[in-house]
User: Which sequence fits this backbone?
């Protein structure tokens, strides 16, 4: 027989053992919760880290829309492609849609100048490798390969395509690492949405090619950092970037923006397929020209040469030297060096027209008969910018071929 005192002691001993067992299973053996690679950091560091995490995912598909709004409608540049962060490779397309009635001068600025009449092609294909940028005009049948270790004069719009944060430059990925005035909040699914500001010079320098950037910086100099340029950044639960939107309209507000008629400027970037995307580089069967040999200043082309105007550089003084047996934009029938001191653009224009008129009648018939418009010729003369350079005091005479 067990008395009541013994039962009480036994019950207390069993309870003590149970409490000990329970406390041991919850406490000392459990690992602390893992820190999130992005959201556990101080808020000011989180956008920067979203870029790093997105890069570490290895790859992504991207789609960016840059919208220039005017009273006559929206001019839209759509850029889309695939990024290989780890391999430094990318492919993509640039496609412009500009409505009828859009300010003509601004249309030319957006599409880029060429040596001939009109603007550059409204579309292009681009491929990036660690060593080069390849560009193919929407109306071209070949790629131009620009090797990054052999820069050509006036090709900042090509090197602009070589991004720092991304293999494919010109997207909002380039500005996220340097945001300021950052705020953040959770979104459905465990991700985050950040609102912040971009430094104005960073916005124009990263999103626009060199010639457009210089036009914008007439209004917003590089040292002007006070203008608020808002950006919204969205990530998924892993901290990978899924979307970024920026309103660049503040860069247009003070006087002439450099883009006549444009009232607002916005950018929207979407990333998908993180870690599941592979760029498509040009197949080996495609024709590829070495830009270091094929692209040259218009005054360096020889009489009789056939040229294309679209080089991808958005620089009118440059042309592509191509075979006359295939399609080409123009045929040069004379290069005339102006004598004496530079007389200004008006004087140079008058002398150029006279010189090309005389040269037209002396040129080989095969060169002038290449024209799509018989008895019509064109001339390009030195500008004020190059008037003091002897080697650029050259008038180029040509006929349009297609």
Assistant:
């Amino acid at each position: 027989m067990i008395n009541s005192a013994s039962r009480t002691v036994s019950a207390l001993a069993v309870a003590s053992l149970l409490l000990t067992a329970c406390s041991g299973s919850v406490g000392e053996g459990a690992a602390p919760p893992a820190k999130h690679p992005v959201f556990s950091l101080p808020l000011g560091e989180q956008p920067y880290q979203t870029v790093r995490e997105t890069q570490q995912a290895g790859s992504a598909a991207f789609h960016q829309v840059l919208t220039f709004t005017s009273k006559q409608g929206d001019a839209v540049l759509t850029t889309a492609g695939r990024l290989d962060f780890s391999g430094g490779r990318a492919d993509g397309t640039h496609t412009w849609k500009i409505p009828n009635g859009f300010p003509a001068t601004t249309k030319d600025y957006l599409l880029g100048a060429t040596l001939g009449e009109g603007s550059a092609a409204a579309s292009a294909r681009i491929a990036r490798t660690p060593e080069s940028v390849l560009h193919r005009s929407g109306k071209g049948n070949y790629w131009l390969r620009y090797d990054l270790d052999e820069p050509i004069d006036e090709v900042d719009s090509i090197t602009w395509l070589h991004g720092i944060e991304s293999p494919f430059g010109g997207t909002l990925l380039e500005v996220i690492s340097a945001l300021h005035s950052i705020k953040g909040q959770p979104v459905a699914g465990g991700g985050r949405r950040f609102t912040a500001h971009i430094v104005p010079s960073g916005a124009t320098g990263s999103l626009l090619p060199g010639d457009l950037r210089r036009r914008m910086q007439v209004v917003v100099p590089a040292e002007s950092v006070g203008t608020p340029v808002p950006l919204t950044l969205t990530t998924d639960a892993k901290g990978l970037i899924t979307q970024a939107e920026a309103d660049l309209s503040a860069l247009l507000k003070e006087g002439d923006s450099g883009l006549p008629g444009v009232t607002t400027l916005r950018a929207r970037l979407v990333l998908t397929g993180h870690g599941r995307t592979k760029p498509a580089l040009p197949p080996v069967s495609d024709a590829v020209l070495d830009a270091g040999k094929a692209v040259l200043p218009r005054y360096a082309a020889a009489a009789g040469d056939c040229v294309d105007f679209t080089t991808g550089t958005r620089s009118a003084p440059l042309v592509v030297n191509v075979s006359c047996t295939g399609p080409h934009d123009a045929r040069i029938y004379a290069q005339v060096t102006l004598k004496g001191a530079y007389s200004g653009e008006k004087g140079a224009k008058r002398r150029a027209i006279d010189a090309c008129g005389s040269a037209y009648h002396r040129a080989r018939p095969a060169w002038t008969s290449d024209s799509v418009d018989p008895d019509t010729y064109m001339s390009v003369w030195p500008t004020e910018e190059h008037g003091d350079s002897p080697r650029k005091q050259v008038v180029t005479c040509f006929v349009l071929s297609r």
User: Anything to note?
Assistant: The radius of gyration is 30 Å. Residues 292-400 form one domain. The mean pLDDT is 85. The chain has two domains: 43-272, 292-400.
